[in-house]
Amino acid sequence: xxxxxxxxxxxxxxxxxxxxxxxxxxxxxxxxxxxxxxxxxxxxxxxxxxxxxxxxxxxxxxxxxxxxxxxxxxxxxxxxxxxxxxxxxxxxxxxxxxxxxxxxxxxxxxxxxxxxxxxxxxxxxxxxxxxxxxxxxxxxxxxxxxxxxxxxxxxxxxxxxxxxxxxxxxxxxxxxxxxxxxxxxxxxxxxxxxxxxxxxxxxxxxxxxxxxxxxxxxxxxxxxxxxxxxxxxxxxxxxxxxxxxxxxxxxxxxxxxxxxxxxxxxxxxxxxxxxxxxxxxxxxxxxxxxxxxxxxxxxxxxxxxxxxxxxxxxxxxxxxxxxxxxxxxxxxxxxxxxxxxxxxxxxxxxxxxxxxxxxxxxxxxxxxxxxxxxxx
Length: 376
Ligand SMILES: [Zn+2]
Ligand SMILES: [Zn+2]
Description:
By secondary structure, the protein is α/β, with parallel strands linked by helices. Helix content is 44%, strand content 15%. Helix 8 (222-234) crosses helix 12 (310-328).
């Protein structure tokens, strides 16, 4: 039997093997009202499903909305834009939003060498894919954080993408060669997310400088930026609010950092990834469950549900008015360099080098035979 999971929660069993077209006919479902998925793969009506396999029917749109551009059946509705698009026009919309973001903030040109920070998740892999499709010179940087199966699976997805795009992928084996994030965070008495952030920031910058990349790009989306803005405002952290931008200019030994997908929501990126068959790791990072940014995202989604366009307006209007916050936090940030690695740091030793010191100390104490006295 073939198991067919309906979007309304129903599961039907149909005798196989059978073509998708015949399965849909038998169920009375119109071909152009659903996407048919087998695992991560989308199936066209002419594909055959084998006995014992499971497929999923995903509605393209409830109520049979039409594409705003061409009038064909829509695959996605975008209430915040009061719009719906067919597959092709959704892609056009998507690329247009990325292009607009890049141009509006003059992020980079086709001459620049771009280093995309990839985690194996939908946002970063989609960004890498999209920039490559747009003809940009973009390579990938993956940092292994030693989070067990999660890291293994995410590296695999990232390597697959590098192969598909035929681009260079730089892998930093931090977790396996230095120390996995979880014990490191415990020792540093910090949360896993904040230690992870320190490690990532350090390598993004260092690899970009050493390997001659002009700009570092991350897959942050509109939801990420809005949640961060809300968090900063809830705490009235004016210097952080003032600094928030899709572009952080190169300064004080830090490479220029950009977020080309800041105009696109998580949902739009997920749909784009799905429709382009981009394979990414679906599970959330097991370390980030208690992250407050997820709470802000939930709250914002509740508001968005009732009032579409709120997220978009909140962030894009902020960008127009952020000079107000810059004026409020006029005091220049102190600048300095880390006495150990020479990288930018506000303290004598940067937070990454402090983490490394902890690891070294740990290794030294491990070398001491059990029960041995320290003679110092
Ligand atoms: Zn269309
Ligand atoms: Zn340092």
